[in-house]
Amino acid sequence: MSSYKVALLFIFFASKVAADCSFEKQRDLYHPALAEQDASESFQKNDVHFIAVANGFAPTRPGFKNIKPTRCLFLESNWTMLWVGADSNRCNDHSELNEQALNYAARFNKKMLELASESDSYICKSDLLGNVP
User: Fold this and answer.
1) I want to staple 39 with a disulfide (CB 3.0 to 4.6 A). Which of 52, 56, 111, 132 is the partner?
2) Measuring CA to CA, how many Å separate 57 from each of 17, 18, 89?
3) Residue 76 DSSP code
């Protein structure tokens, strides 16, 4: 009976996380046209981080298509998550939210990758050498 309760709690928690649509309320903070400027400003404040988008079973990391995944990049770097409903599709205007979040994250991440690859203080710089266009 105890494992049954644990399974129910897990299913309940997973469905709540998957249905997180907090990006709906934050979307005005993430204009794709300003993403590169936002990345530059963050970098100037020594805030090297990347943006992932929770829009499926696992988060999408736009701008990392041609970057070799390493432990440092994915586990030791700071990441901000934009929640657009994960795999639930329960958010209002899900398609539009998803497109905006992916577009912003791709532009932000590409600029941040460019800046971080030239930084002597970024801990994962060696993982970016030869990988950033």
Assistant:
1) 111
2) 11, 8, 11
3) I
